[in-house]
Structures are given as C-alpha cells and as structure tokens.
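re: that complex we talked abt at group meeting.

here r the seqs, copy pasted straight from the sheet so there may be weird spacing, ignore it
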Amino acid sequence: MALPQAKHDATEARLEGLTRLPGGAWLSAAQDAALGRFGAMGLPGRRDEYWRFTDPATLNAATAPSAALMTITDEAPIFGDIDRVRLVFVDGVFDAAASDDPDLAGVEIERLAEAGKTDIHWSRDVYGVLEARGQTPVRRPFAALNTAFAQDGVLIRVTGKAARPVHLVYLHESETSDAILHHCIKVEQGAELTVLENGPGAARFNKVMEVDIADGGAFHHIRAQGRDHERRAMTHVFARLGEESLFKSFTMTANGVLTRNEAVIEFTGDNASAHVAGAAMGDGDFHHDDTVFITHDAVNCESRQVFKKVLRNGATGVFQGKILVRPGAQKTDGYQMSQALLLDENAQFLAKPELEIHADDVACSHGSTSGAIDEEALFYLRARGVPRAEAIDMLTLAFLAEAIQEIGDEAIRDEIHTRLEAWLMRRRG
Amino acid sequence: MLEIKNLHVKLEEEDKAILKGVDLTVEAGKVHAIMGPNGSGKSTLSYVLSGKNGYEVTDGSATLLGHDLLAMDPEERAAAGLFLAFQYPVEIPGVGNMTFLRTAVNAQRKARGEEEMSSAEFLKTVRQKARELEIDADMLKRPVNTGFSGGEKKRNEILQMAMLAPKMCILDETDSGLDVDAMKLVAQGVNALRDAGRGFLVITHYQRLLNHIQPDVVHIMSEGRIIKTGGPELALEVEENGYADLKAEVA
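got the structure back, here u go
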C-alpha cells in the first residue's frame, strides 16, 4: 500500500540523514525488516488515532530541533547512593571511560554496536521481534524507525539474580544531538534484574527497550526523566511476559517540552504480573504523553497501570491506555488509573482509557479523573498552621503517592519522593 | 482572649445573612459553650473565625489577644493560637498523620519565630499524648483521617490540639457521631488541656457533652445572634425544654 505523497516525502526526508549501524547477519536482517515496517507505515500525523493529542511534528522533522543544555548544580545525580553498574551514554554515544566495568555475576552485558557485528547472537530473538509484535493493532512508527537506525544500546542477558542494578545514564551535552538507542534485555528462567535509567540525554531522544522475561523471571525498571526541559523524548518499552513472571516499571518525569512514553506489554504465560506507573510534573509548555497497551493472552495474569500527572501554567498531559483481553485469557485482573491534578485553569489533561475484553471471567476496572486541589483539605491543613504554598505541595505529593508506591524498593521510592518534592519547592518562589 | 463584636456575616455566593450581630468574649481560662438549634449559625461562626473561604464579613470585628483575626490567613490565625476542632475532619489520603502533625507543629513554631521541634522530642511528645487518647501507632502511621471511624477522627482532632497547644480552642460539634465512651475520652483530652492561659469555645447542639466538659458560661444562639447567656444551668434548661421555649421567651 503506497503512502500519500506528502507523507511519503516527509518519510523520505526523515530517513535521509540516518545511517544504519554496521551489523552482521542477525542485525542486518532485523534492520531490513524494521525498515520495511517503517516504510509501510510512514511517519505519524495528527489524524492518526493515537497521535491526536500529541503533535509528532518535531519528532518527524528531518533534523532535531535544538535544545538548550542544562547544568544542574543544586541536586546530586539521581541514584547516586545505590551500589550499581553505571553505563553512560552522552548524546546517545557510549562513553566507556565514564562507565563502570560491566562485571556483574549472572548478567551478560554487551554493546549493540559490538555484538551487532556478529552473525549469530541471542538478541536476534528479541531485537525488533517484540517491537514488531507490538505494531498491531496500533502502529508505532518511531519504534520501527529505531530498530532500523539505532546507533547503539545494550544487550543484557540475565541468567541469575543480579546483585546490583544496571544504571543507564543518558547525558545531554550537545544542543542539536539526535540520539537513537535500542536496548534488549532477556531475563532467563527465574532470573531477576533491576534497570535504572535517567536522562533523556539528547536534544531529541528515541529509545526502545525490549524486555523478554522467561518463566519465573522478574524485571524491575525505574526511570527518571528530569529537568532537561527543552529536550524531546520518544520512548518505547516492549515487554513479553512468560509464566509466573513479573514486570514492574515506574517513570518519573519532571519537565520536558515533549515526552511520549509508550509501554507495550504482552502476557504470553499464565499467572504473571505487570505494573506500569508514572508520576509526571510539568509547567508551562510541558507536554507529557503516556501511551500504554497491555495484551492479556494468558490465564490469571494481573496488570496494573497507575499514572499521575501534576500540571500547571498551561502544561498538557496525555494518557492513552488500553487493556486488551484476548479470548481465553480468563481470570484476568486488570486495573487502570490515570489522574491529573490541574494546578490552574490553563493546564489540560487529555485521556483515552480503553478496555477491550473477549473473555467472560475477568475483573477489569479503570478510572480517569482530572481535578484541582481539594479546597476542603487545603483549608484543613492551613487551619493547622501549614502555609498555603506548603499545604498545596503536601497535597500534590499526596496525589502522586499512589504512583510512587508502585516502586518496590524503599530507598528508591524515598529518593523519587525527595526529587518530586524538590521540584515543587523550586517552584514555590 | 477572644473578642467578637457585632459580627455580621453573609454567604459570598448568595445574598444570605448568617450571622446578624454576634457579640462574645471568651476570657483566658474559661470554657464558653454555644448551644443552638440547627441552622442558627454556630458552625459558620467557627469557620469565619478560622478563616474558611466562602463567607463575607459585612460588619463587626473578631480579635484574638488583640490581633485582628479577620485580616489574617488561616495559617496565621493558627500560628497566633487559634484552633478549630472540625465537626467533619477531612480525610487526606497520601499524607501520613505523623508527617502532617510534625509539619503543622513546626510551621507554627517557624511562623512565631520559635525553634522547630526536634524529631526525638516530637516523637516522644506525640507518643505520650496519643497514648492518653488511646490512639495507637497504626493510627499515627495511616494517612490523615483516612478510613478512621467517627470516634477516631475526633480523637485525632484532640491529639492535634494537644500537640499544637493553642491559646484559643474552638470545638465544633465535637460530640457529633460519638458514642458515650468515645465522648468521655475526647472530653478527658479537652479537660487535660484546660488551664488558666487557654480559652475554649465549645459548640454543641446537645447538652450531654457539657456533662463531661463543664462550661463556665453558656450562650444560646438562634438565627445568627446570641439570644441568651447564662451559667451551666442554661444548658440544662435547654435539655429540659428545647430551644423553642427560649426563642419564644426572648421574642
């Protein structure tokens, strides 16, 4: 099927500046297939069903719009107190000197740029595979583009319980950088890994993470997208869950003129559990989009989505979340909650919650709300002597609490809470 | 302590007068009670004094130790020593009771230019006062008033009062929704705070709370005015004859 001419031209222009990572047989094949998928889809437009609330123009543009750099001096780098393996990417380019030795028992860590040169690699069963599965029924052109043109990334195979988290650090040092990173994580039977991420570190950042969890495996993901306001980020997490496996992902976003985080999760084994949560705070021209698609194709699986956004001064929040229960996916327990706290009348929240259920013995619930600070609660706090600004911050953090509670690790939970509190404090004036 | 003169208040949103000239003085060390039928303006008086939105003062004044209450924000009134025990304490999911208490105590201290209470001192004090009110550790850890029973909420109000040690305490229908045991516990908490430097204004519909918190002065409020003032015997009279007789008598 041919694309309309305008879309075809824009798509061609977008591809012009991109180069493929030189690869061996497995990577080349994956890139070819992805390029085919992308070519057939073309770039998204505002009329596409899942792009009505977020304008893809700056993601579609042939070159990345520039983004001023931000030097943070009033906060220590996040996750600094955690014993972890740091892997650093500067504007999407791996920085070996700044990274730790990737030596972690039960965990093999390789760079895509290196392992991609081989002809046979375990990641051929993951790289672009989960992404391709996630292209139906909803198209995700930037993910296909990523698979075809990723410049680097990490390939992580987990065979045991990792003693330390792997921390992917993304630094932004060039005003015009246009980074494409692609990570694959294979969690083998009964293995367990935590991945921390912070960034995004580029003027325009396109990142895909594919996570394949075998039976009894567990994967924890905590991501902080923070403070670097002018950057644009388009991220995808694709996860496939085997029997009795666990997937947990939490994202904190503070600032950013454009962030779209897609999570595409598929249950293929019974009795598994997936939680995706996010706490986002934005001001002014902040635009934040969570797009989630969860497919239940196994029995007795539990999925939970908890997304909270705090919006002020005209900031925009978007939530598009879907739970699809395939025929036979009985005993599914699906929960979806998206809420926005609008701190003034100019902020807006656009939500599109969807349930599609083809099994008769399931429990699915969803809710979506947007509202202002509760005046009764505010008066109660003030009547006890808490100044108005501080009381609003307390209520704002309370609003985010349900999402933050999704983080299993107490120390990380506290750190995220502290960062969010600091964000609010900086705006108190 | 608290001086209210000729206070006139109307609802902001509709042109409806609620208080039509209230005069009331509560002296330090005294417990004043305000009784009155539903809709007489008792709760409005407590809200206006504590600074709730939605009311417009059209005439009169209210001062606490000489400070113009009506010109202050709610948090400033609290720091100046005013405390309202709410008729309906608000549930605040996501804010831990202890965090809330500590923030309130220290915010008031900070506003008064005093040193903040240390963690150790705070913990020690709160545990002791909670024990007296039979508030267990779990209630302290839970989010503010969230899922609390009626009695737990009222005890939590008194705990806040004890921790904040205000100069002027207003109790708005603290007896509503309480069984006898809970009421006794709450009354004990209030009585423990009675001292020569503190004033109380106890708002209640029924006389029974006043069996446990003995007032020095009883006022009867009706249709936005105080229509009669007397000693504790006035409360008994209401209990006996209802408000209708009193209103007729004054009219």
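couple things i noticed - Residues 25-41 of chain A form the longest helix (17 residues). The longest strand of chain A covers residues 273-283.
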